[in-house]
Amino acid sequence: MSRQPLRCWMQERVRWAVPAIGSEGCSVIAARMQAARQADGGFSGRAGASDLYYSVFAAGILRAVDDPDTIRTQPAYLAAQGDGAECDLVHLACLARLRAEAGLDDPVVTQAIAAQLHGYAYPAGGFSQTPNPDHATAYGSYLAFAAYQDLGLELPDRDGLMAAIEGCRSSDGAYANEPDQEHGLTAITAGIVALRCHCGLPIEAATRDWIMARAHRQGGFMASPLVPVPDLLSTATALTALAHLEADLGPLTQPCLMFLDALWDSRGGFRPHAFESAVDSEYTWYGMLCLGILLGPDPEHQAPT
């Protein structure tokens, strides 16, 4: 498996979705993303103001459809974020990712962001979404791993982080965000599988089978054994994990394409699930990621129109 940064692997597949969506569909998506662009160069989320989290997805989509203004305006917005002193772990990871994508390489800022990340480290290994944690979480550890990678820095204690993640094994053989959970979560399990594959670490067959068992018979993947309906986040992360495992996606392709078609919105994007009407940059990026994984760089199928 390629050792390119995780963000590059995913962004490459988002770009693979562009030919399938077609020029008209991409124009509608791009227009929606441009409408979210704020005067400061960031992109708004559902609250309306510029947000690092939603900027990751909007900028990634516009890069995929070759919008030159994305790179031109972003550095000013990122410079205004400084070293992320006001950010939580999620937004620190987003800042690191956006800086990497914009080609910003200031060693002083890089080290300052790393110092902010350290505040979320658990002394025994791993990271949490809350500062000065009393235990590590799987999601916090994944975010920190990706952030250090995007900063171009070595992770301080990779073995400790991996051990902390293993501590989040659920009783059903998957991964939960916290230790000592009965049921795993698809998004968490899939993220850890992708991370372990990226690091060349083995994946138990039972974990792969657990992910496959979350596939809904009508397309898409469900969030956990307790959730009966599929959603786009679970589908995007499950397909990412299975692609890293080089699993045969053939039997899943048509059902998943039908699932994506049902979530496509003519306003220019994808909805999170069948019971949600909102369209935003995050789920549009997930939808494009799914299409890119399912169809590859030379798609033979038509995407939603």
Write the layout of secondary structure elements.
Blueprint lengths: L5 H30 L16 H13 L4 H12 L8 H14 L4 H12 L19 H14 L6 H9 L19 H13 L6 H9 L7 E2 L7 E2 H13 L5 H14 E2 L3 E2 L10 H15 L10
Antiparallel strand pairs: 1-2, 3-4
Give a verbal description of the structure.
This protein is mostly helical and 305 residues long. The protein has a domain at 87-167. It is built from twelve helices and four strands. It has helices at 6-35, 52-64, 69-80, 89-102, 107-118, 138-151, 158-166, 186-198, 205-213, 232-244, 250-263, 281-295; strands at 221-222, 230-231, 264-265, 269-270. The strands form two sheets. A two-stranded antiparallel ribbon has the order 1-2. Strands 3-4 form a two-stranded antiparallel ribbon. Strand 1 (221-222) and strand 2 (230-231) form a beta hairpin. The longest helix has 30 residues, at 6-35. The two termini are 33 Å apart. The mean pLDDT is 93.
Question: What's the gist of this structure?
Answer:
The chain has helices spanning 6-35, 52-64, 69-80, 89-102, 107-118, 138-151, 158-166, 186-198, 205-213, 232-244, 250-263, 281-295; strands at 221-222, 230-231, 264-265, 269-270. The protein is mostly helical.
